[in-house]
Amino acid sequence: MAGLNDATRGRLLFGGDYNPEQWPPEVWQEDVRLMRDAGVTLATVGVFSWATLEPSPGARDFGWLDDVLGRLDEAGIGVCLATPTASPPPWLGARHPETLPRDEHGTVVWYGSRNQFCASSPVYREHAARITEDLARRYGRHPALRLWHVNNEYGTACYCDETARHFRSWLRDRYGTLQALNEAWGTAFWSQRYGTWDEIIPPRRAQYLINPTQVLDFRRFTSDALLECFVAERDIVAAHSPDVPVTTNFMPLFAGQDGWRWAAEEDVVSVDLYPDPAAAHDDATGPAHGALVQDLTRSQAGGPWMLMEQAASAVNWRPVNRPKPEGLMRQWSLQAVARGADAICFFQWRQSRQGSEKFHSAMLPHAGEHSRTFDQVRALGEELAGLTDVVGTTVTASVAVLHEWSAWWASGQPGRPSAALDYPAVLATWHQALWEQNLTTDFAHPEADLTGYRLVVVPQLYLLSDAALDNLTRYVRGGGTLVCGFFTGVADVDDRIREGGVDERLRRLLGIARVHEWWPLAEEERVGLSDGSHGTVWSEDLELADAADDSEDAGRAEVIAAYATGPLAGRPAVTRATAAGDVGAAWYVSTLPERPALRALLAEAARTAGATPVLPDAPAGCEAVRRGELLFLLNHLPEQITVPLQDPHTDLLSGQAHPTEVTLGRHGVAVLTPTPKGSRA
Question: Annotated catalytic, 126?
């Protein structure tokens, strides 16, 4: 199977979305000249070109694309050729309104924007397959072709009648019988029992709360329906060019797709990433968010991955769209390389003069080639060209964060103990606490093999399968260290509450007899802990297991911190359990500690587990990542920092030798390779 290495040809890919159909042909030659000047090696072409390629039903206009691909090939610029199916032309919606999606109210989502398709529509799928087939037949062997890019940012949900039929078919495959579905959905509640398959509909607008398992299954179904569309187009292009890898671009930490299932169907895993430049320094949530998405994407890929889109400067969709100050675009690009990316691309190459995204920045901005932005793009291209040593190398992590989409979908519904419990926010808080300590982190599915990790953390997984619970038990019994957050292991895969409120296997592992009550906190509320710190968002009324229980699978829990204020004062808040003969440990954190306290807690768990930071002496604000033999250092503080080194290194970016330390300015980056012994440093 083709992979990213087949596209890189030994160098980091660099480029962006190129939309020549927005410009007259006389501009194309200037584009090619400036791409070569900037060091561009890859142009993504055709993402939104369906109406240009097929101006009327069945018509084909490939002449302009022949010209563009020929120019790029002549200039030595590779092409990531997109199927244009994310944005059907107006004629498809006008002639076939059944291809348009409907929202949960039954309202048609009309054409006039993008992504206006129903993934279940046979008519949409037929037209998408036709244009994809013709595109692949014509360009599948083109010398410029490096990658196929299918569709774009999948995520549209539809609630129409065609979707209802497709949903029922999916449910038949999942459950087999109506009796099994009724049992799984708990339809005895509120008189919801289904007597025929035709009675089942998507979770459309209802009088009050909708059956939560119906909603959960519809989220699963929607992800699978979109995946069917991707696989259909992937198979078409692969048949014409089996040696060319295929990708589609994920949105960052996006709820609409089960990323683990999708990544397994891709040759190359790619993502679009747009951290807020306004969050670069104050609390570092910008680069922390970038690191989270990059770690997740690398984990989905199982190796090098592709940054398909980022902004050269400002975006156009925030309430206030701050540009990137000088140096930040370079730093965040190199952060992606540090965390496993072998391709650094942007949306887009030339800034649009019309349309909804004309204020979204580009590699070549409205200010032209003599602009600060283009100067920075050119400099980045030159630096990336010199980092051939990094291509294909891996990032090794000793810590895993467990993440699963069904758990997210289930826990985010209404009718839960607290609407203030936000799964992505909890996940980001835990990941940032690890990132700030330079503890390199993978993400993993709860059922994945965890034996290679010294520390596994579960920020909050409300829903866990039996296989996942058995997996966690094996991991700890095998000597691993687990840190488990609150409101975890509460429900099974059908969103049925486990007996006892939390699964017995997890409670025994954690040394907890029972959770008497979940005790959520108000949005601004804090609860004091006995170690002087505070908890937020959540608390729980725990009872520890009886120390007299001497069964071999029972954990012995000690209280690390107790609640010191509020109605739970004196009761356990943070615990650590081991069982007789175990070398592993299982921590339970029944609240969300404030950032310094969570950072300290995870640092202690990592220390006892033997998971060490990449550079233990790095100052605050310094991100340190090791990729292969290279050490990446990034300064996320507004002021200069000095980073001590354990051994002499040489910076591949500057060529400068650093015997004992490196000084990094604002947005500074160093890519260090060990200085060979005997060399002058």
Answer: no
